[in-house]
Design a protein that fits this description.
Order of helices and strands: EEEHHEHEHEH
Distance between the termini: 34 Å
Strand content: 15-25%
Structural class: alpha/beta
Number of helices: 5
Helix content: 25-40%
Length: about 150
């Protein structure tokens, strides 16, 4: 049986490392889904990884990868391509490895060649979804908690 060709785009509004506001991550394919990472959760997770000796950028990239995996957990197995908006230039391979690891830990079956990084632009439905949630024009599908992240540790 052939898998249907499905591309999922992933975008972020307010970077994980920006500690002035909540972060919104969203995906879009034939549907849309958005999750919010509250500021307090970002602060706690970044502090956890910094306490384990990770640099600020490494901690940020790890929290981002975890949030992407949580966002995609139910949709990733059906995707033929996952396009993640380029957010952390130079860390794409690290993010890819972490996202795959976290997705597999969550039970998703995803091959390595499915994930790609590129600028998806402001016209992307994923970008619009993330912005709409950030601007409170749309409700998020889920607000993440520390427990969601701790399940992946």
């Amino acid at each position: 049986m052939r898998r249907r060709s499905t591309t999922i785009e992933v975008a972020q509004s307010i970077k994980i490392g920006d500690l002035s506001a909540d972060t919104v991550l969203a995906y879009s394919n034939h549907t849309q889904c958005a999750v919010v990472v509250p500021l307090s959760v970002k602060q706690s997770m970044l502090a956890l990884f910094r306490g384990r000796g990770k640099s600020t950028i490494r901690a940020t990239v790890q929290v981002f990868a975890m949030a992407v995996a949580i966002l995609l957990k139910t949709a990733a197995s059906q995707a033929s391509r996952i396009v993640i908006d380029t957010e952390y230039t130079g860390y794409e391979k690290d993010i890819e490895g972490m996202v795959l690891s976290y997705l597999r830990k969550a039970g998703a079956k995803v091959s390595k060649d499915v994930i790609v990084f590129r600028a998806i632009g402001k016209s992307s439905e994923a970008h619009r979804c993330a912005i709409d949630v950030h601007r409170q024009k749309r409700d998020p599908d889920r607000v993440l908690s520390l427990d969601d992240f701790e399940e992946l540790l």
